[in-house]
Fold each of these.
Amino acid sequence: MADVEIRGLTKVFPGGVRALDALDLHINDGEFFALLGPSGCGKTTLLRTIAGLEGATSGQILIGGRDVTGLPPGARDVGMVFQDYALYPHMTVADNITYPLKIRKVAKDERRRTAESVGGSLQIQALFDRRPGQLSGGQQQRVALARVIAYRPRVFLFDEPLSNLDARLRLEARTFLKQLQTELGITTIYVTHDQSEALAMADRMAVMEKGQIRQLDTPTACFRQSANLFVAGFIGSTPMNLLPARIVDGELDVAGCRLPIPEDVRAHVSRDEHLILGVRPEYMSLSRTEVPGALNGTVRILENLGVDTLVTVDVGDLRVQATAPDESVPTPGDHVWLTADPRHVLLYREDDGERVGAPRAAAGTSPGTPDVVNTPAR
Amino acid sequence: MRGTGPASTVRGEPSESELVVRRFLGRVAFYVFIVIVGAFFALPMVWLVLAPFDAHPTLNAALPDFTLGNFGDVLKDPYALSSLGVSILLAVGTMLLVVVLAAPAAYALSRVRLPGRDLLLYLLLLFSSIVTGTAAMVPLFLLIFDLGLTDTHLGVVLVLAGGLVPAGIFILKDFVDSIPTSYEESARLFGASSFQILRDIVLPYARPGLAVIAVWVMVNVWGNFLIPFILLRTPSSQPAAVVIYNFYTEGGQADLRLISTFGLLYSIPVVVMYLFVNRRYGFRFYGGLKG
């Protein structure tokens, strides 16, 4: 078992694309760590650089305290599951699983024993004599997992392993993978562009954009206290409401309604400052009777999400979304009042999109350092 | 049509029975056409199979005046049998050389990003047709002469391979391109060396491609007349494609008995090889070689 330490890692591709920009990251021993971001954000490059499939332009990678930056992939003791599983089509399932051991010159009996025990725990023993082409997507994924488990690496690297499965199977595989990782306790780095996967499985996650980490925290914190507008917009199955707001007379003015300024940011804002108020639809409550100080408008669209319904409301020129439980779903055309749960109201600066009062991740300030209020008066 | 029944005849449209007849006649005409076209291509083959067993073959395919004597007569020619051996030697030798040279080159060209790689490949392909073409015969002869390789099979193999390697690389590169790089990457992560990756993953995967190249090279060499004819002097070292000209009379007349018999012997190894490879690998022409 090992922790993974990344220091000032930069990767510039020939042609000048800066895929990783001076990244610092520490992944704890036994942790399930997700790298989340849109395509092109550098998450796969980071994974491949940790694996050694890409060379680092500068910076260091340490696995279990050992500097592996210059080592070839085979000497790093990492096991990777690829998006396409990379099962060798000309070998049987059993041969695929034991191939890493064959490379390590493990004796044949021992290989067979390992394959049986790993295959048994993943319930794929019945498939041992088949070829990968004769397996379903879910079975192929299990074989790929069995192969990497049989290799017994110190770190697992997963490159979007669920993206080739259909939606139903993906949920099952997610639970299975999480359970497996908990049982094995092997440090796992998991790359995905699907925020729900990262939220569901990770102990901690890094949200990446343009080769940089925009937020590094637990899934809960990333969801509830998104550090900036990018993370706020990327995470969540329903898009966060982002509304222009202004500080007027010690209150927040949003679309003509007055809301109290949350306590924790009061010290960081100045009079007349323009901000962006973010609140997730899940934290908006909806009422058909008048609520003083609430946003009010007309219901336009209803989208059924299963348990809840996503209600889109026109508030003046703005569109605000809220989820409503089944029993209190309005009908389009209704006039409704929307209140944001004050504990989950987030305020972002208009200029850099960072959350007001949040520790600046990029600047590396320690949590709790108050931001200097130096926004010039408009 | 069928469902409209008698009403359609009233409107002057063909009745159901008329339609059946028409369809039947159409079928017949179609099959007759197919048979004629097929016969056009099959007749020479039929002739090749029948004529060797005919005591007096003509250019017509006819039921033979059965004899096995032709084979005896062909084998009386001192070079007939040995020439087939030489052909096999040249074909197998060139095939091995081309596969051994083209496979690693194709792998490297597929995996390493080289500026101007495609241009290089196309230029090689373009010039390769010159190597084995008539235009380059004089310089090639001089080259082989200077190397002291005239009248040796090695010289012939080198020239033939030189002409076939670029196309071999071109075709094989397509096969290698179709191997996902993740296969090799996962093997590298397990600590496999480049040689192990090539042996365990790339070669087995590219085997149908190698089989295609091997057969293609052998067929090319088997049928090549010009290069062995120019480079080889000793009659006993000539391959079958050259020796077949021994069966013309001095006046330039073809001796149909011997030519057809030798032609049959000459074609058997190629047919056998095709059948073998097809059984083994089931000719999967894919990549750039759809067909």
Amino acid sequence: MNKIKHKINLANISRFRTIIQILSFILIMYGGYAAITISERIPTFACPYATGSAGTCYLIAMQHGLHITWADFASYRGFGFYTGLLIFLAWFIVFNKSWCGFVCPLGSIQDWITKLRKLLGIAFTKYDSKLFKKLRFIKFIVLGLLILIPLGMSNSLFGLPHFSHDLGAPFCQICPGRTVLPLFTGSTSELFIDFANNTTIFMSTLGIIIFVTFIIGSFFKKRFFCFFCPMSALQFLFSRIGLLRMTKVGSVCTKCGNCSRVCDIGIEQIAEDITSKFIVKDDCMMCFKCVEACPENDCLKVSFAGISILNSTDEGFFKRYSDSKTFKIDTDSKELIDQKKKND
Amino acid sequence: MTKNKSQNTISRYERMKKTSTVHLAMEYAKSLKEVVDDFPYNPESMYFFYDRMNAFLDAENTDLANKKVIATSCIFVPEEIIYALGAIPLRICNGAYSYDQIGAEFMPAKACPLVKSTIGQLHVNNFPMGAKPQLIVNPTSCDYKKKMPEVETASEIEFYTLELPATKETEASKSYWIQSIDAFIKKLEKTTGNKLTRKKLKEAINLVSQAQQQYRRLHTIRKQGPVIWGKDVILLSNSYFFEDIRKWTEQLEKLNDELEVRVENKQYVVKENAPKILLTGSPSIFPNLKTPVLIEQMGGLIVADEFCSSNRLLYDTVAVDEWFLYDMIPALADRYLKPCTCPNLTPNTDRDRKLINTAKEFSADGVIYQAFAGCQLYEMESLRIAKKLEQEGIPMLYIETDYNPDDLGQLSTRIEAFLESLKAKKSKTQIA
Amino acid sequence: MYTKLKTVSIILLLFMSSCFCFAQENIWLSGDPPPQAKRVVRPSGMQHYMAFRNNRGQEKLILWPRNGDTPKGSSYIDSFNTEPEIFVVSPAGDLLEYNLSTSDKGFALTYAFDLEGYHNIYFLWKEVRDETLFVHVAKAERLNHKCQNGHRSISGKIKVKSFPEIVPFEIIRNRFKPTEDFHLILASGNVASFSALENNEAIEDVEFIFVTEKGWSKTVNANEKGIAEFQIPEDYFSKMKELNKDETYHFLLTAKYSNSTSGEYQGKAYSKISYVCTYAGDYEPSPSLYKSSFWPIIIILFSTLAIGSFIFYSRSKRRRFY
């Protein structure tokens, strides 16, 4: 058992993650063609607008489910919403936020765009910590709107008139998943502007602009969209009860910042926070790159239902981040200096 | 008249140079004898490092004579960049009392002996293995170092001031530091005539990473049992200052292999109940191994230290996500600033945590805090550290010393008393 | 003058009432509630059906029998001259219980709408007059679908189902293959294809009369395969601002066919059968009226330019370290 654990601690988790990402992308994007349905409430962007989707993103079900009157919350329809939430939670609790890091097709696409940028050797952009702290609230605002707008369609919120039905599933209308994912099944039908009325014009134009922002943004910023993703915010609300956990032993931490450096989102708290045990922050997607990059033994730990599965070790760190093969750097020898002098 | 005077000074300088060499040789021999001959169970593989200490004086060894050498005066200088630009870093932090005496001419009486000694070395222009440094990279890590370039010595080597932020917590300090590194790279590119490339820097990071890996391994071994004297670890860390990094790594690997066998066979250098000491404060640099040697002669064992000349030297690592200059350089900058526990940074609470954690990890019984007379930064932090350690129930001994061997008697009394109290406490808890 | 008007009106009334007597053929099943019921029921589901839940949480669907030649001009009725036989067939092929009564929802048919798939509803009148068997069928098809139940096994659930043992003659809407899914609502511009089945066989030369909401009509005879196709016209011309893309209109399709089969029904012999079937459906404004695929290109270009130059600007402003 200890041997297996030791091996896992030395393993290249990122490569494993890439493989899982490719497999789950194929399953989620094209599984529908093979009549696979995982669930209608999975906590990841399995977009039903893409015809082959094997399952449905919970956000769409939630938006539909919340389109009910206050009275309905105590009735059969409300019951449907509650059971939906429970199914979502059942899926979510098992893998916690690693749905984002390992499964989400939109996240995988962003990672591949990042790989393309790396291939071109173009530097990435990082938010400075001030901007970061401001921007991270956006996803909670989006989540709030996503809940309030469907409610406001069937109820009068704060004395406002009922919202237009054109705002149905409001997040889907601006979600880059709706515009990007169908492209992978060869359909551009989701790229449209709906001129039916002002609401639809606004929402569909916003959807297209977000589509463009997504593509350009994720080219320059790693996991650009995940920072604003309401699914991430929704998951964060429940991440404490997840079976898969990531914890930090603050006293061992040297604040070297390796973890926040390799973090695709750029969470600085993972290095700075030395008091919290549960280190999964709202932006975290549990890709465990930080565990890979942590050189302190047992500082960052990943456990499943109390069973530890991955620990940070210095041995593992050096195995991943230092390459013994490139041990050949040479300093200028005397001959070289002489040659240079001659050239001068 | 003026001519006469200058003749006089020159002759005086020559004389000083000559006598200092003799004094240095004596000091080295004495220190080595103490370190090597007075202790049992020195590992076989340590003799390489002992010998290399001798080579420091060996005029025939000219390994560095024809190489581009960049002298560094502090741990803050990113050596990976120096390697990547085809030069060799040579740390000139010095522990010699004979140089300290020369340096005293240029510095106030109560100045830090380490800086004085370094200035003394620069004045007599004596570098190991015939090295002729092209540049001295001098970070502004304390007031004495800040003023070092302004001290007019006989040395004609150019100083480069690597600017350090006063804190590491703010966004501004991070960007200040990286700008500082950026300027440093440009300067070094000019000095060496080489261009920093992605491939070279990656190789350099890997090169240092290999050394780090072995160095961390040594400490993992030290945690498992008292298989090596602390003075040996401090000495071998000092040899990293001038030794060829690949040779050093190879030898350290050999030593680690030997020590691992010792761990398996439980061949300990002291009895297991010997008081375990964590040494911290102003760095002990060979030949000034007065404090560590005293501690271990008195029956203590240094299990770990927190010196910028040894444990902190190769501890912090570089993690690069994308192996391009745009990510490697900030990663390097982070390595030198973020985890640093140098007291010139404020606030320096990381040092409290690090000391407590190290004491726990290495199961140290007590902490000995060494501060050089004149090293205000370490002196000032001692009270806070003492308080923090007390809260954790770790006893601490504060000693103030310098390079002068005069205080040996007083030191040994205090250290002995401290060790006795640790022993008493230990046996009490064992009985309980 | 006045008396003249009176007599005319009496004659008219008499004529209309006599028409009414023989006008069972014009009854069709509408999903639109009468004005007095509009507050009581509201559309639910993607197909805009009038459904509601009763106290026990059971979902019910309502259909209103209406009388008239055009969807718009048809009136809601509150009783039948001749009582029809009524069949509500579930997606599984079972007969469902129903309730036809007058309430605050109007004179309406109500039945449980729980199972997923197409429900078929038939009103059937049979009568022998002048040695002719008149068979009149009013048919409606209603799809029950909840997205939460998933979108798999589409083809099985939307398959056309006919019930010759219940009704000898019926109109079916041929499904769009393979594109039809649960969310299909016919729109102007779609070519809808219909067949009339006699004893489960599509027959040719059936006369189909297709009437749109406002009364435009077209008559087509089924081809040799028994298929009649209609392209749904746009009979509404609203300004862009007033366009409601979710507005549903009704079309009314009537199929007429007679053949000389002799037989006996309720003790009366006949030598000829005359079939009439009504089938009402919904259509929406065409998406091509308001959905543009061209504008996205322009917006993509513009936003690429804007975002690109923003990034270029912010990157050039930032101090770069290699």
